[in-house]
Design goal:
binds adenosine-5'-triphosphate; binds magnesium ion; 464 residues; alpha/beta; two-stranded antiparallel sheet; single chain; 11 strands
Amino acid sequence: MDSIGVNEQTPREIVEELNKYIVGQDEAKRSVAIALRNRWRSRQLTGSMQDDVIPKNILMIGSTGVGKTEIARRLARLVKAPFIKVEATKFTEVGYVGRDVESIVRDLAETAVRMVRQQRMEDVQEKAKEMAEERILDVFVPEPKKSQNPLGRLFGNDEEDSSEEKKEEPKYQAGREWVRKRLKNGELEEELIEIDVEESSKPMVGMFSGSSLEGMGDNLQDMIGSLMPKRHKKRKVTVAAARKIFAQEEAAKLIDMDEVAEEAVRVAEKSGIVFLDEIDKVAVKGNTSGADVSREGVQRDILPIVEGSTVVTKYGPVKTDHVLFIAAGAFHTAKPSDLIPELQGRFPIRVELKSLRKEDFEKILTEPQNALLKQYKALLAVEGVELDFKESAISRIAELACDVNEQAEDIGARRLHTLLEKLIEDVSFDAPDMEDKNVTIDAAYVDEKLSDIAQNRDLSQYIL
Ligand SMILES: Nc1ncnc2c1ncn2[C@@H]1O[C@H](COP(=O)(O)OP(=O)(O)OP(=O)(O)O)[C@@H](O)[C@H]1O
Ligand SMILES: [Mg+2]
């Protein structure tokens, strides 16, 4: 019944899924797959054993542009657990500008609530749809007017009115049945009707944003929002659209938000995953001064959350003991050992992502779902241009990417983006005016467009 947070996939299946998007980096894929599976395993345990098994956090190390963030992005779609990705650089010490680290947990809870709510909404879909149809019926065939004098009805002297109503009743029912039938047959979908829609009012967006009062600001906003009368607005929409709007509203009424919040907190605690990107940027090398102090402060702030603490969110207190943290960083200048020792110890699993080589580049260009070359092809196909990348071209592009990465700076697969942009520039510009819409790109074409720049070190530093 409750499928959130439990990923049934085996490690092998998870790796296979990741393989669709990420070339190589098998070690990193394996580690995250195992971590996910361990989540599932510990769920099968009982009692204090389940409490004591805490997830082993992962630290991914690899130079820039080799797929760290990409793995996180793909993982996020894969897992059925609340997942958030944050940049460690976003935080500074409490009281400085920037966000306080507890917002990580608040965001996680928020994500969990959204997931649980979504699931509950799906559960009541059918019912909500039926109720939506009733409301559409009300628009077509409004209920006959009730007695104008409620006091009179109360005291029983309403014979006149009720006889009036009794006459209306069968007509009303019959009309309703007739429209219902046509609605069911889908004959009225394009019909325009006027409906009342609720406008959610959020009056003071961002009142406290950017301060450590942020979380409280959210609460306040919600409170004020719920105190304000719901604004209604009349809109003319098709029946088909009204179905959607009403079904949403009805579904929202059918679910119990308190129960959702409770469940969401539980899911966030047991299955939440936080991806801490750019962790190396808050590591400090050697003696500390100035900005470094602040960076070390960030690490100290992060520590309790990674170690396990309780953060108050508007959905209730969330314990972070069982949240899985995956940190990643390039560690170009700082080393993992430059992190404060306590934090190092909280990331027992280290995986290294390899630098990408020519064969990897070739694969990245062509293999992943929506690989780069596929993207360019699709984009230009919109203009009727057919791009044909020959094997020789792919091999040449990959080679150039390696060369430039060696000469200038190693920016990994991002180099492919800059190279391709330059390579396709002319076609991109001319596409709408081209007479011959077939463009063949082979090694010679690549050389013509790129090799001068690639060979000129100074030039390539700026252009590629
Ligand atoms: N192994 C790979 N397979 C497929 N695509 C990749 C791979 N590595 C990188 N890319 C592509 O290169 C780009 C940059 O990768 P990503 O954002 O993952 O870098 P990163 O490792 O997080 O680098 P940084 O340390 O700078 O954050 C993305 O568009 C991604 O699709
Ligand atoms: Mg990254």
